[in-house]
Design a protein that fits this description.
Among the domains are: about 5-170, Rossmann fold, CATH 3.40.50; about 180-260, Translation factors (Elongation Factor Tu (Ef-tu), domain 3), CATH 2.40.30.10; about 270-365, Translation factors (Elongation Factor Tu (Ef-tu), domain 3, Beta Barrel), CATH 2.40.30.10; about 575-635, Orthogonal Bundle (Arc Repressor Mutant, subunit A). Helix content is about 35%, strand content about 30%. About 40% of the residues are buried.
Length: about 625
């Protein structure tokens, strides 16, 4: 048994709702306003069991031009369409727009039902038939059955059911997916149950008790109960009209256009890439950056259409575009979409998502053109490689590769393993792998080398640059794990060296000029001669008339070479003098249990308090001594 979705399409007042009621006994106009006005405003739903065992969930869509956006929402997930045309009016404007939408969304199966056939004569039926023949030429209904029916008399209903049976035999099983997905078309509450949503299950399977995510807001919920075709079930799968009772989330937190999906299955994006077919029925060229209403699934999102290789698109052209949206959407490669004008509202065109997680594309760029061609015509391996390459320094997860290629499971794992074995891509973090293209990795390595070379040239007396500072110098959005992998590669290949978080080229040595060497010797002598009462370094700078950069560079050399020891800001001592002081303190404690400040002053030869206190605190910090009240003791004694 197949579970399939049948959608109706056609102009207002051509009898779509009446035909469904005659077929199924269900009045899909559930709203009081719909019943009062006699038109369908929101989507309506019914079901039909066929004699061959197949089951149809029926989506009744509005025909009025003001509600075409609901028609687009209804077309999401449809397997076959009944195009309804009234015998007394023939093909009308909304019939044409609905046909355009069905063609754009890639619907391939359907038939034409000519309603109200009981109120016209045979001559008019012949004219209508000819009109339908011209109308369906070069569409998915070109050779489809045309059935004359009457909801009032029952004429043709049995024939219609038989044609539907034949069509259901032709429609292949839906492609399997690793995750469940349902675009929400209704949200309401039921007393005693809470939040309930309905929609058409597009892919995968879900069971009662499972956790799901509401996208694009990434809100968590639990499946409390499921219904398909008014029957409680413990699971729902692709092709079913489904009602989902959600636990742990309020009605306000879910809206029409959201998607209920397997937890952590989708990724929201503000940009998508596609080939866009601009309908030939449009009266004028489409301009770059035209503001549009972007429809996919059951959502409507405002945004702009970016023409990537031209300034305008002519009616009938199919062109590469990028949609830049004002709010995020969650799509998968090959999802259908429709773009409608912002004002006036009319259908511009549509197509299928080529890259659901797009990055900003440059216009008139050969690399963007090649990227589109690869995603459209390339092999599976080439598509995966192109997606990974497009993500640059941020990389891409296995989940997002699946979303962008519509591949999953063993097939996707095998393709990625093959590309890894060829050293085309690299991976970080085995537990939660992220993939990068080798080109991005190699470029990052060369950028690091270039930055180090420049830093050494500008700072010849410094050993190197702080690793964290280097990331900021690169001025790119770089994943830290990729950066670490690049550093490890450079270090392993003896191109760079990392010491105490300071990174330098492996070949770099501090270059000291003759003048600098002279200054270094003078400062060294200054601190040797001053003993335990050295000058503050700012006074040394003034004495030798040093600029800030030179003074800092020389000081760093003296500290690194263990000539000086920093005691506190701007106060440095000769290293040998400090080592001798440590020995004198230990010698003192060989004969004494404790040491007062006066005792320490005696040990140092009577130095002033401005040196005495910093030295005592230094010995505490170095864990030679420990302060207890006003005295000190030797640590560990």
């Amino acid at each position: 048994m197949k579970e399939l979705i049948l959608g109706t399409a056609g102009h207002i007042d051509h009898g779509k709702t009446s035909l469904i009621k005659a077929l199924t006994g269900t009045d899909t106009d559930r709203l009081k306003e719909e019943q009062k006005r006699g038109i369908t405003i929101e989507l309506g739903f019914a079901s039909l069991d066929l004699a061959n065992g197949n089951h149809l969930g029926i989506v009744d869509v509005p025909g009025h031009e003001k509600f075409v956006k609901n028609m687009v929402a209804g077309a999401s997930g449809i397997d076959l369409v009944t195009m309804i045309i009234a015998a007394d009016e023939g093909v009308m404007p909304q019939t044409k727009e609905h046909m355009d939408i069905c063609n754009l969304l890639g619907i391939k199966h359907g038939l034409v039902a000519v309603t109200k056939s009981d109120i016209v004569d045979d001559d008019l039926k012949e004219l209508v038939y000819d009109d339908i023949h011209d109308f369906t030429e070069n569409t998915f209904l070109e050779n489809a059955p045309v059935v004359f029916v009457s909801s009032h008399t029952g004429e043709g209903l049995d024939e219609l059911k038989k044609e539907l049976e034949k069509l259901t035999e032709l429609i292949p099983e839906r492609k399997k997916s690793w995750f469940y997905r349902l675009p929400v078309d209704r949200v309401f509450t039921m007393k005693g149950f809470g939040t309930v949503i309905t929609g058409t299950s597009l892919s995968g399977e879900i069971k009662t008790g499972e956790n799901v995510t509401v996208y694009p807001e990434n809100k968590e919920a639990k499946i409390r109960g499921l219904q398909t075709h008014n029957k409680s079930v413990d699971h729902a799968s692709a092709g079913m009209r489904t009602a989902v009772n959600l636990q742990g989330i309020s009605k306000k937190a879910v809206k029409k256009g959201d998607i209920i999906a397997t937890k952590d299955a989708l990724s929201p994006s503000f940009m998508t890439d596609a080939y866009f077919t601009y309908l030939k029925t449009n009266s004028k060229p489409l301009k770059n950056r035209t503001r549009i209403r972007f429809h996919t699934g059951t959502s409507e999102t405002m945004g702009n259409i970016i023409l990537l290789d031209r300034e305008t698109a002519e009616p009938g052209e199919t062109v590469p575009v990028q949609f830049r949206l004002e709010s995020p959407v969650c799509t998968v490669k090959d999802d259908g979409f429709v773009a409608r004008g912002y004002s006036p509202v009319h259908t511009l065109g549509g197509g299928f998502i080529l890259n659901p997680l797009a990055v900003k594309q440059k216009r008139f760029d050969d690399s963007a053109r090649n990227f589109f061609e690869t995603l459209f015509k390339g092999s599976d391996t080439q598509k995966i490689e192109a997606i990974i390459q497009s993500k640059g320094f941020w990389g891409v997860s296995i989940k997002d590769i699946s979303i962008c290629t519509n591949m999953y499971g063993k097939k996707l794992d095998q393709e990625i393993s093959l590309i890894l074995s060829k050293n085309i891509i690299i991976r970080t973090d085995k537990d939660s792998p992220v993939y990068y293209h080798k080109d991005a990795f190699d470029f990052l390595c060369s950028e690091i080398i270039n930055k180090l070379e420049k830093f050494h040239k500008d700072n010849p007396l410094k050993d190197g640059i702080n690793k964290d500072e280097l990331i900021h110098l690169l001025k790119r959005n770089i994943n830290e794990k990729l950066f670490s992998k690049a550093l490890n590669s450079l270090i392993k290949n003896n191109e760079a060296l990392l010491e105490k978080n300071i990174l330098r080229l492996y070949s770099h040595k501090v270059a000291i000029t003759a003048d600098t060497e002279k200054i270094k010797s003078q400062i060294t002598q200054e601190y040797e001669n001053s003993g335990l009462m050295p000058p503050y370094f700012k006074d040394v700078e003034k004495k030798y008339n040093l600029d800030k950069q030179t003074a800092e560079d020389v000081l760093n050399i003296l500290l690194k070479n263990d000539v000086l020891v920093k005691i506190k800001n701007d106060l440095f001592f000769n290293k040998e003098k400090i080592e001798k002081l440590k020995k004198d303190v230990i010698s003192y404690f060989n004969d004494n249990e404790e040491m007062s400040t006066a005792d320490f002053k005696s040990i140092t030869g009577g130095i002033s308090r401005k040196y005495l206190i910093p030295l005592l605190e230094f010995l505490d910090q170095e864990k030679y001594t420990i302060r207890i009240g006003d005295i000190r003791k030797l640590r560990g004694k």
